[in-house]
User: Which sequence fits this backbone?
């Protein structure tokens, strides 16, 4: 299919196009995957998504497959190891925030609160659909979720990062009106138009 119409942000990079076609905007309910994407969006802060996407395999290797229970046990030696890992974004603050986020995830789950259910509670479990034209960087809902995440202790969860995460994990369907995935997501998610 050479005449596939995608969201403009995908450009011509094959990995970006594959991510767009298979993952971006698909409602993600798995608590572990929701946390992984939140961590990766945090690493994106100040960078472009293509940078993080091209390093995702190295991130997964460095962070034990983003298993929150394993990452929660990381200590100073793991931080030192990751800070010199050329395959990832080597920000000590972001690495420490990811480890701290894993501990928060575990505490929630151990208390009987599913991180996945909590993330989706802000929309009553429904995917919201954007207008297909505007791609806001921040919304009132991303500000609300950002504040709630910060209150729990998560870091690198400002409203812009949170909105990008909401788009990535399908809490919001922001595929552009002309994009072939927009209607597929609506139909798959049962989202009202």
Assistant:
């Amino acid at each position: 299919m050479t005449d596939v119409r995608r969201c403009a942000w995908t450009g011509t990079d094959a990995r970006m196009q594959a991510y767009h076609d298979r993952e971006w905007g698909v409602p993600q309910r798995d608590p572990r995957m929701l946390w992984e994407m939140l961590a990766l969006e945090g690493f994106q802060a100040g960078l472009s998504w293509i940078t993080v996407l091209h390093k995702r395999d190295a991130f997964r290797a460095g962070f034990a497959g983003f298993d929150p229970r394993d990452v929660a046990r990381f200590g100073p030696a793991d931080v030192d190891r990751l800070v010199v890992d050329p395959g990832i974004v080597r920000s000590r603050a972001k690495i420490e925030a990811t480890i701290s986020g894993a501990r928060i995830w575990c505490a929630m789950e151990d208390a009987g609160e599913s991180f996945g259910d909590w993330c989706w509670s802000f929309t009553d479990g429904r995917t919201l659909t954007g207008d297909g034209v505007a791609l806001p960087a921040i919304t009132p809902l991303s500000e609300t979720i950002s504040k709630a995440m910060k209150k729990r202790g998560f870091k690198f969860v400002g409203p812009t990062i949170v909105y990008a995460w909401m788009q990535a994990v399908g809490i919001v369907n922001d595929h552009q009106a002309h994009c072939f995935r927009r209607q597929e997501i609506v139909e798959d998610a049962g989202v009202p138009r």
In short: The chain has one domain: 10-189. The longest strand covers residues 128-129.
